[in-house]
Amino acid sequence: MLLDRAPWHTTAKLKLPRNISLIFLPSRAPELNPIENVWQFLRVHWLANTIFDDMDHIINAAYNVWNNLVAPPTIRSIGLTKWAYKGQR
């Protein structure tokens, strides 16, 4: 399993089946972990500085964020990074 080095991935308390091996990404290499782009996009565009009144508001916000996130233009904007196309036309 490929993981970043978040503390919850590296704790000695993590119990693994014998048939699972962990491979850690290098530190400070978010370009190797595309999900980091998704989390950053969510924070910047929908979730930053938000106070929710109750659990229903959190669920509704998550629902709306997900529906916006899976729209093709959004996926393209998150996935297209300059480093991924360096040297390509």
TrEMBL record:
InterPro entries listed in its UniProt record: RNaseH_sf, Tc1-like_DDE_dom
Domain Tc1-like transposase DDE: 2-58
Domain of life of the native organism: Bacteria
Molecular-function annotations in GO: nucleic acid binding
Pfam families: DDE_3
Signal peptide: none
Protein's name according to its UniProt entry: Tc1-like transposase DDE domain-containing protein
